[in-house]
User: Fold these one by one.
Assistant:
Number 1:
Amino acid sequence: MPKCSKHQLNLLRISLQKAPGLHFHSVSRYFPTFLPFFYFSSFALSPNPTPRSEPEKDEDDELSVSGKIFKSGPQLGSYKLGDATFYSLIENYASSGEFRLIEHVLDRMKREGRVLVERSFILIFKACGKAHLPGEAVKFFDRMVKEFHCKQTVKSFNSVLNVIIQEGDFSDALKFYLRVFGANKMSFQPNVLTYNLIIKVLCKLGEIDRAVETFREMALKNCNPDVFTYSTLMNGLCKERRIDEAVFLLDELQTEGCLPNPVTFNVLIDALCKNGDLSRAAKLVDNMFLKGCVPNEVTYNTLIHGLCLKGKLDKALSLLDKMVSSKCVPNEVTYGTIINGLVKQGRAEDGAHILVSMEERGHKANQYIYSSLISGLFKEGKSEDAVRVWKEMMEKGCKPNVVVYGAFIDGLCREGKPDEAEEILYEMVSKGCLPNAFAYSSLMKGFFKKGDSQKAILVWKEMMSQDARHNEVCCSVLLNGLCEDGRVREALTVWKHMLSEGIKPDVVAYSSMIKGLCDAGSVDQGLKLFYEMQCQEPKSQPDVITYNILFKALCREGNLIRAVDLLNSMLDRGCDPDSTTCNIFLGTLRDRNDPCQDGRLFLDELVVRLLKRERKLAALRIVEDMLVRCLPPEASTWFRVIQKTCKPKKIQETIDEFCKSLYGQ
């Protein structure tokens, strides 16, 4: 066996360390000690290496340094290539995503009749996943048997299926599954991982019934579902609001002796909280403790979020204390949820106290927490506190994002300080933060509120020069401001500009323009625009505000019959009247003979018609409005309201309770 000196080995180490993508230790792992010596002495130490006469393209040009070493070794008589050598090359090339070189190795192995193993293909599939090439993974899977006579098993199939799913190609994943197992000619059967993946695919595609069928099929194939199978299917059922079926699966899971984990419970708790069923969610938490499954921060965060959605902030705060006592550390999501809930209830000051508590426990507030607090404090008229929170945020090194800037600009405009808000917007732009539609529209509203419509128009022009994506929202604000200011001609110019730019007006833009035309005495033009509005997409359909604008305009002209016809159309289109609607019609009827009777009968008939259309909540709101105005409904109408909105047993219980309290029996 030829030997090399220490000097030669040192030269070899230095040379190989300089080679890109190759290290001495990685080469020495695959070669006997004499191979580097022959390779190095033949090429690197040659005093006069013979250059090629012409730069020809051959296979060596395609290979990496490690590939050239593998190829050169046998030519020098140092060793014979074995299958493990090729496997190592495939592993190296797969880890670096060198698909061309993988093809070179596979081609040579095929020519030499080498044996390929499934493990090598699984490495290639994973490389395809990293490179976002699910189609290539499928092609390699199909070539395993046809070209390389490599036996496929469920491992290689699952690997390819997972690559397709990770890429989000759920339809392709289902097609691949059906193609492989549809003919029942495979030498292998799906295992629990296969079922877990395909059930996930079916749930993502909204094919929940098929997912349930596939789940039930597992027992026929002697494949026992695990906790991940149950959790995946339960999650799919919950997203389709089939919560009872998901709860039944939890019971089945425990009956089968499969221990649920926190993820399993969290799926159900989240669904119940979103559905407003907090009592059942709380019972599930108790069930978790009974099963020895400790709730984690996701469990608590989900419950706290559900309580905040229901407005039960005191219970949410109590749960926060319980969370801490259970040694489950609250995170930014926990605090952010509670602070946001307090702000929505008009308790922004309490939210500020929670922020202090949060920071004392070592947590830093993010931009969204600050934006919620700043916005809430401004809305509650506590502008000084809002400015203080803004300054504290800056001092603590929390860089404001577009959401925080927008909240601060909007708050200053609410306080009648659009000039200060404009300075903040310029600061925002100078720091490379592009204002969004909310920031621009808030500033425009601020100037319109101040009576400076010209400045609002300048803000709109500035927005136009920055980013055209904001036009739709801001044009609506501009139209409303101009129409409120009586500048209908300019508003029409903006309207035509919107249409010429391909901007589709929303319900706010249409309503603003209709109001401007009606206030200017052009009711017919307003109606024409209204009828055009009805032919637009859903976001541009008229709402109760649009109808009320037209009711007011028609009644002002004394055209009550036309207003009533429009009210009928409103009911037919599924739009419910509100208190403003009642005010408009009652105000008109007040000038007619016998106003009290006319008004009461009009609203009474409106309630009946809503009940006939099964619009119970809208009918109850009108009844409530009638009672406030001391215009009680007819006895027959009362009967219909009770019949439609109350359950018979509850009615009798209520009557009995009333009689008991009235007669003391």
Number 2:
Amino acid sequence: MATEKGSISIHTENIFPIIKKFLYSDNEIFLRELVSNAVDAVQKIKRLASLGQFNGEVGEPLVEVKLDEKAKTITISDNGLGMTAEEIKKYINQVAFSGASEFVEKFKDAKDANEIIGKFGLGFYSAFMVADLVEIQTLSYQEGAKPAKWTCDGSTEFEISEGSRTTRGTDIILHVNADSEEFLSEQKLQEILDKYAKFLPVPIKFGTKTEQVEDGKDEEGKTKYTSVEVDNIVNTTSPIWTKSPADLSDKDYLDFYRQLYPFSDEPLFWIHLNVDYPFNLTGVLYFPKVKEDFDMQRNKIKLFSRQVFITDEVKDIVPEFLMLLHGVIDSPDIPLNVSRSFLQADSNVKKINTYITKKVADKLAELFKADRKAYEEKWSDIGLFVKYGMITEEKFYEKAKDFALLTNTQNEHFTLEDYKAKVSPLQTDKNGNVVYLYTTDTDKQDGFIQAANKKDYDVLVMSHPIDGHFVSTLEQKLEKTQLKRVDASVANQLIEKDEKLESVLSEEQSNNVKTVFEQAINKPGYNVEVVALNPDDAPVTITMDEFMRRMKDMAKMGGGMSFYGNMPDSYKVAINGNHKLINKILSTTDSAEQSKYAKQAVDLALLSQGMLTGAELTAFVSRSVELI
């Protein structure tokens, strides 16, 4: 067979229905696309005027959205550069021929040419998702141009004729179809404009609104107000992320935060992003006061592209540990899919992710160095971000280890380096490992904390659900350092030393005591051992193995530890052979009496751990009354 070459044929009548129905994820995007196109047109005429290629009167830039419920039309008007009939044929009739791309290429050396929003040349066709007839009325800025009219019913047929527009610019008139009449509502259109057009760089007018203005004084000298109708401008054309930080006050940042999140507490602080190499990125990220329900606080960072809202799904751009931040990111270099609704992965996304991580680390380091006391006061809120980052991002850990704080039960704060220096003298075991003790619940574990404090051991507070993972990270990163929960064992055995207390019991007596307690407990998963402790320590201490308990805690947080979460609980029961109660048990030959005292001591240990409930708790109370 002879070799044959040719071109793949794409028929408009086949691809046009796909563009109309499946290109966009949500019908409401039609308004974003058409308003963005109108903004482009206004930006272009301003650019041409600044370059001396248009000498007419530019006028006040404006895009207007009009609704006619009776006629079932939505009109998007602008006073931009308009189009000739030939330009309509070129930019509208040729699918995916982007006028914005051609314009930017032509004027790529001009300042701020990238303000032009459009990219793919497909946005106009989103109109057919909601309209069964679309009409264009336009008049070009070019000298001697005649108005042109274009109509299309959603098929591949169109009509161009003389238009009726008398001023420069374009009207896009949508005759809304029966399936999309939900958009013939002022409230609905206002919601869409608030979502997508709130920060576009050209004023967007949508009807009018009533405002109260001062109207002199009354007889008592009080200010009078009167109601007036004014244009309803839906957007702020110069949001703070487009400005220099030097031109902004704290009030500006807080006002903007309240505009974005009107029902939120004031943020702790913020970071202004501004980079132009190797990619363009601006934005403001706020550190909020973190609530317990983390999922409710996610998706609060809004992604823009040249001030057009795109999405609040930013997990690829923003590191996972910063997903609880609030604010905005704006970049023309973030790769979007054809419908400008979703991110596409490429090297710029990774670079932006890395940049944001670095900026956050630098800001935290700056706050720590500038005012450590103020930083410590914010730590309960900041700590979640820092710990999460240290767990998940190696590069962030390397920076954060200098400003991450550990907090003890006296509410004192230490850097990692400071804390090691503090506890090393007393809390180094016989193998040279420094042992950090910590509590996950200061109330429930108070007895263990006090026992540790009696030995002058310091105890850290690690009470947040994420702390289980943070503890493991610290053990991996800190050289010759172990972390143990304060109730992982009796105080004497938390940190293994060379010195040991002598037992007052013989081997036979120890075995007898062990048997008495095993029979009194009579439950699987409880491993009894008799140990030599200080006579003043508790007679019985019940603890869970440190490794197993930690794995179970982490299993509750997820992260691939569910295997441990399903394993049965296993406890270590340490009997203090030097306690006077043990001598009392050994001194009686009545097995029932021995069992009663052993059971009481075990229940006390369970009670101290919050593990005594139901019928067992009731029996303990009755037995306590009997023993009084």
Number 3:
Amino acid sequence: MSVEHVPRDRIDSYPTHRIAGYGVRPGRPMPFGATLVPGGVNFSVFSNGADAMSLVLYRRGAPAPMAELPFPRGFRVGGVFAMVVYGLDYEDLEYGYRAYGPERPRFGDRFDPTRVLADPYARSVSGRDVWGAVPDWEREYPYRSRLVFDDFDWDGDTPLRVPAEDLVVYEAHVRGFTRNPNSGVRSPGTYAGLAEKIPYLRELGVNCVELMPVFEFDEFENSRVLPGTGERLYNYWGYSTLGFYAPKAGYAATGRYGMQADELKTLVRQLHRAGIEVVLDVVFNHTAEGNENGPTISFRGLDNAVYYMLTPSGQYYNFSGTGNTFNCNHPVVRDFVLDCLRFWASEYHIDGFRFDLAAILDRDIHGAPLANPPLLESLAHDPVLRDCKLIAEAWDAGGLYQVGNFPNYGRWAEWNGKYRDTVRRFLKGDPALAGEMATRYTGSSDLYGGRGAVASVNFVTCHDGFTLNDLVSYDEKHNEANGEGNRDGADDNNSWNHGVEGPTDDPDIAALRLRQLKNAMAILLTSHGVPMLLAGDEVANTQNGNNNAYCHDSELSWFDWELVEKNAELLSFVRACVAFRHAHPVLRGAGHFRGTDYAGTGYQDLSWHGVRAWEPDWSPGSRFVASLRCGGHAKGGTVQDDFVYVAVNSHWEALDVELPRLPEGARWRVFADTSLPAPRDAHAPGTEPEAADQAAYRVGPRSVVVLVGPRAAAQASSDNPSD
């Protein structure tokens, strides 16, 4: 294709060449991606190994390109091809690249000029604009890059910067949260639908939503129809990114109009107005391109040897369990990840990020763990990300388990898998766990001693595994609906069905299961660290025993809004527990307890108790743990709070427990007792009734008791001794 030279007037505003009928000029290498400039678009793409590159332009939805513009040799700077193109209809434009280079898989090169490649930095991706709309499987370029206009009105919104110790996190799937027809929203399964449920979230009391992946992915990846049932299975969870800068169009009511960016930004703005932060679950450990048999979408065709970890024979290391592993500690890939997160923090006002299979991020190009992984260090110290929460899933599919040992640089928090496992086992009455339970309950100082309790994101359930209801209803997983012979999903669930597998009409078993649900919530929401709830657990949502519902876009995995009324007792209990946590700083300290009276209150900041006060039982047969937190030490003694006593009895018999004595004038009040029927199971903070006996309390079988001793009463008595 010939290149015409055009007389130069102002090189920064006018074309210097014509290619395929378009005026063009050499572009700026940075930033990567497609950027609007006066009169045109600056296209910049990296490929260190390509010999040549073409820009391929489409009208929106058109099957064939309207033009293809090769980058002249002089439009390349180092490994970056950059060109400004003038006269484009930005709103009707889709674009991609064609990279020319060697195809030598053994040496890591997989260039294929027959493929049109998506821009890794594209801010919008078309092709899956409406969730579940069957695509054209013959389309040569299915995921097309598009531009987004930076004209959203944030109306003064800024990230909330809620202190980590004050967070109550709520993990939710954007589509599943409102897709059920009984959700009652105007646009089910969308960002807009989720926004309609903000009043529900506020009533619940959570102040942070952690959204499962919202970066563009293809729900039809590995899609299939189950024989016999006819149900179509999807890539429902979305842990297979194909557009890291692009919000999922299929999650937007306006996705068919290309307005998904504005709809997601509107959701973030509305959540912030409600005092709720937004954390995104991000997947940088692998991409949607899979192994050597997977599709060529973007990275593979641009520079396979740079973007992926490759074996000496050119195959893909698979530490993600999905076919490939992103080469995160290569300098170019590291910059890509940093640029991406800066973009979401600045352009979408995101408050933090949870990193899927984050242990992969500290592997070198051969997969070995690094002592000082540059990506994790860069993320920890990046100036743009300074105020963002960084949360690691500190393990991967290759066997690297780093809970408590994740390279943290004083910044990273972790999903505490050891907390999950210990609480589950203690709840069902496993022996020899009292000491472990106490450690996990108070912030896992053995794991996070140098980082503080806020490094521990505590959870009993998450999207991956049983729901809380199923945890107390099933001994075994039931994943038959996945079509994989029940072989998928974890087998070590530490669950207990309480005598019957699945649903039951037995009133005693149903009552015990409800009590166990309350026990789990009471423990989680009074634990030191950052609590995380799974959406739907507060109303006993079920997946019918499926602990790996990654492929189900159906009632099986959707939030059932009828349960809000049906299980109102549990919901009311959870709301009360969240409110109690917010009301008491002593439950939310950023640091660890010292076990001493460093503030001169007459009480240790944390003390342990057994059936007799001040005498904890750490023996293998003990199934009872009680703690007393003195609010005079809350947040270093600068905030005065009440005394909070929590007793957890996982024994099948009731225990008569001696209570620690409060200061003169203070009396124990009962916030929660899961052995009691509603509404006496929990009370609104500030309305707790006095305990009938101030010296002892009967803790029911398999139950949790939370008492509060108001310091104000003790202080008033001290100030007025004549009273």
Number 4:
Amino acid sequence: MKIIRPSPELKRYTLPQLLKLRAENEGERVALREKDFGIWNEVTYAEYYANVRDFAHGLLELGYRPGEKFAVIAENIPEWVYAELAVQGLGGVSVGIYPSSVPAEVAYVMEYADVTMALVQDQEQADKLLEVKDELPRLRRIVYEDPRGMRGYDPDLFVSFEEVLELGRKHRHADPRAFEERLEAGRPDDIAHFSLTSGTTGKPKAAMLTHKNLIHMGVALQEIDPMEPGDDYLSFLPLAWIGEQMMTMGMGLTGGFAVNFPEEVATAMSDLVEIGPHLMFSPPRVWEGIQSRIWVDISESYAFNRWVYRQLMKVGYKAADYRMRGRPMPLGLRLAYAFAHAVLFRPLKDQLGFLRLRRAYTGGAALGPDVFRFFHALGVNLKQIYGQTEITGIAFVHRDGDVRYDTVGVPIPGTEVKISDEGEILARSDAVCAGYYKRDDATAELLEGGWLHSGDAGYLTDDGHLVVIDRLSDVMHTASGEMFSPQFLENKLKFSPYIKEAVVYGDQRPYLAAFINIDPQTVGKWAEDRGLAYTTYMDLSSKPEVAELIRREVEQVNADLPEGLRIRRFVLLFKLLDADDDELTRTGKVRRKFVAERYHDLVEALYGDRDEVLVKTEFKYQDGSVQRVEANVRVIDLTSSVAREEVGA
């Protein structure tokens, strides 16, 4: 058996060609696993390729034409990657759609991307397409993976995944070379996949990713952090997101490690414990959630256990400061850490599924320094990455032993970077996409002068680390002309374990103010420990005691800021900002302009003289139902002693 190792040579293949190469050389090795009814089912590279090949033949039998766009709306399941690679092997383009998308969002993506066929996971996703079918004249066939509830659906439109495979086997028997010929004709620079941008300021655009983009990313990242053929990775973030495409497709096929799919999204963390992956990639909210759960569990433990935890964590934090900067620890600290690791950190990592974890990444937003230090104290090699959809996810990453709270690392191999005169981060590499589909105007701006224009403001340190400030378009000025970055301030607020989300205002205003979402888990536990009864999130967020808790957290942030950049007033929102209410993108980014318009009365109250305002709004659910609510929201003024007395100071 010949093991294919990551190398620049792989960039001369397409993704499905690379899969075929592995099937021919490493056919008996495990490529995929999926947990079903509590059992991990293994798929070898030979079976992986056979499923891709037969599905491709089935699509040909159904009338699929090379070059057409094929959408997938599903959770992370093997059928997603089979379909994606089959379409790409036929010379087509796959399009990822978030399974949490509402019908209107699905209709926009499919019409914009000229989708002709689609794979849906189940009846729920099928019904979304039926609801908007009249808006999709190009859509000819829909393949479904889960047959439950699909018996009465139109057979001229719907066909099961198993039926397509069976059609494919018959088609392959009649025309054995139909897929192989198209597969061999593929070129690395062919468009392979459409990955949708976040759409924070408008409708999402489809970044056209080539095979070379994804393979280069996998090769370059593993030049820094090599993976072994027997390693495991758990794929649980949406495959419609560039981050998961990068890991499951780009990294998985170039590195040859096993990609594992959880039974369902809700069981991902427990399934992670069973797999014990060697590599993990998650946005900050996942790492923050894990830390919060540990805090809650420790706080519910016996007093002696809490005391031991605090003492051993002190040792861990000291060791983390040495480890993150790659400095050797003094002998005494090494011995103390070995004891702490044996008594606390190793058992804790075992419970989390982190015992075999060699490298972990976080990206998509800033992660607080306390969270970084916490995981490094446990011995988890957590590193920040930075990139965007248009550069296939990663352009910068921390190196082992050179992890810093305030930077996103240095460029990965093959990446050039510079800062424009306006302070914009520019990059170029083989990972830069071919542009935006049907958006020549936006493509020209994106790739002006042969450089990818990130739209982000930042600077390089003397030793090459990148510091990201904010989106260029989001850098604001107060009425007095003082420049500030709302994202920077929002991230500092979210470093508090009690704050889940924040939206900062102040452009052309006399001072800065903010909307704040409390974290229901940590604040809920805080309230329970103090005997504060509550029923709903709205009830919890309206408690005067909770307002006082958050006031103290905001004041701690303010203490590290210049006078002109301190938060003067804030409100605790009565609901969590939600993608279903269009307040967040599907990747969890705040739609700042939309939120400001939706809660216009609240924004004005922050800059008025009222200390309370009645807000009327709607909750929108995925099934299309709407709930209208009214709530009195208190404005907390950090400069007023009267206001402090009112919230229980």
